[in-house]
């Protein structure tokens, strides 16, 4: 009786502890749900901006301000092009569509043609006409070819299409000022009618509209609102389907990425879950493992999402796509637990106690692998690391706290599954030194062949590529806009405003030649609109050839009254005291539109105040054809830098790729040191060799397949290491049981093999589906992990072979 009472007491105590764990788990789950619901109500936590996933560049203050200015200028800008056969119809439709867009709350501004007032421009420049010259006028005067200018004026005066009025001639006899005004539009192939920019697209009239979204185009709500307004407006102005609509801008790339990510999250998540359900049912022949496995996955995804939001405040859609692979990893704990319970009549707590040390070490290695991702200065991978690490911790806590109370039912399991594990394991039990040597030679040959063909690619555009249709549509719009504005730009520095303008003026002929050499199509510089004081003085001195002693002769040749000579000379002399000043220029609408290109000293940095003030100006570039050649052209100019954020981040990603591979090698060495403290050094070396060889074979196969090596491949190899170590740990645990606990049944190796097979199958399924993603970065990540896990599955049973050598 006493013995029976003791057993009852032990059972009741065990049940009590299991109940307390379950209550604690339920409290944690309730807290997580409450926090999640509250967070979702308070703010939008989903992030779709691909730039938020990119590494942060370490830039100097002026370059950072220039990048911010450019991004603010181009942010949320959408380009809409109406094309039609009839010009008048197209123009009216464009005006109506602009009105519809402007009336909506989705857009902050809508424009097409120039909003500048010609009278305001005239009032700014005409009083300073004696200090202004076009490049061609300046060149002719420098070469002493005044007669050429006189002849041009004579032709213009008596042309049937002449635009000169008597008032203008009396103020500007050589008609230099009209040519100056015409030069402002030089290089632009667009016409303007009724306030609408017009171009030609395949023989049709193209009316161009620029619409700036009120909210970020990377917000799913803003995407839906803006696209809805655009579609509704186009349908309204095109009832007869006579017009077509071309679209370009970040909105349409972001929208396509959002739709693709949502579809992939749904597809990959559903197929991964279906694969897990099938594996559980086929292996354990019971609904209880399926229910608890589902509970584990739900807890993992909940904790992963909340953990990420808690750290970053946002959850990126691409993180969710990556994170769907968590399904294939988090379920491993359930597989190992139920594989141990097959055919055994024992409490769930006993099963958990037996596997908990290996599970804890497996969790530790996996989380450390994810932490390695988190320590890379790459926000995208930091989020993925936090998501997956948090999810694994959630799955582990569910196993530890909920399973003792909920998973006590007996599991008979599938004899077919056990037989499959036995068949998979049996060749490794018969493996001898000769077989291992032959396998090593084969691995060496394959590795050498594949690694020799492996190429690297670090372009950040591998993160996200638009569809062919979207890219073709955008190319048409860029052609209409003479190349548009590229992300690359020139940053010019100087110690003062006037010195800055002088450097911009020195840059202008270099860029003009670059356009002539087809290195780029267009550029926008302050120097084209605001000459320096030095340049204005030079222009004034050059015009002495016109308004000096020869003025009377010039007036006579043009047939103008001689009385104009004295008046013009007086105005010319007074003009030297009336240059265009920066303050007056930026006070106009034209100056305000160009002011974002000027970077004045802020004076906010205490350290910067001790240094000479630094002024900066941005020169926008459009239609760049040869970036490298353009960089060589401007590199020799003082104070001029080509800023290429895409190139800089790509270079940074290449450095991260190399660092990650070195980090992987370091992780392998550290793991060997840790395992050698608990296991024989040969076994520790074998445990580390399995993920190392798996990574090597994965890289070799990538080379043979022609897949380039990117940062995402390298990051995936870190996870191959973490997951591969898990498999080896369980086989190492089985080896220890064979040595230390002789009373254990002979099928322990088969149980471990079954659990590893199920784990590898679910993980490979999850990451294999990622390899089907349309987003190259996700594809590379998934493909590498699928290959790595597959090779790890084939190699990890070799740990089982060591049980004969360790006796």
Q: What can you see in these coordinates?
A:
The chain is of the alpha+beta class and 807 residues long. Among the domains are: 429-452 and 647-807, Multidrug efflux transporter AcrB transmembrane fold; 488-531 and 583-643. The strands form 3 sheets. Strands 2, 3, 4, 5, 6 and 7 form a 6-stranded antiparallel β-sheet that branches. Strand 5 (196-201) and strand 6 form a beta hairpin. It is elongated, with a radius of gyration of 36 Å. Mean pLDDT is 80; it is low at 605-610 and 735-746.
Strand residue content: 5-15%
Report helical residue fraction: 55-70%
CATH homologous superfamily assignment of the domain at 429-452 and 647-807: Multidrug efflux transporter AcrB transmembrane domain
Tally of helical segments: 34
**Number of extended strands:** 13
CATH topology of the domain at 429-452 and 647-807: Multidrug efflux transporter AcrB transmembrane fold
Terminal CA distance reads 43 Å
Strand count, sense and closure of the main sheet? 6 strands, antiparallel
Poorly predicted regions: 605-610, 735-746
Overall shape: elongated
Text of the CATH class of the domain at 429-452 and 647-807: Mainly Alpha
Backbone CA Rg: 36 Å
Roughly what is the average pLDDT, rounded to an integer?
Answer: 80
CATH architecture classification name of the domain at 429-452 and 647-807: Up-down Bundle
Derived structural class: alpha+beta
Organism: Shewanella jiangmenensis
Transmembrane segments: 20-37, 265-284, 290-312, 317-335, 355-373, 385-403, 617-640, 660-677, 684-705, 711-732, 752-772, 778-799
Domain SSD: 271-409, 648-806
Pfam families: Sterol-sensing
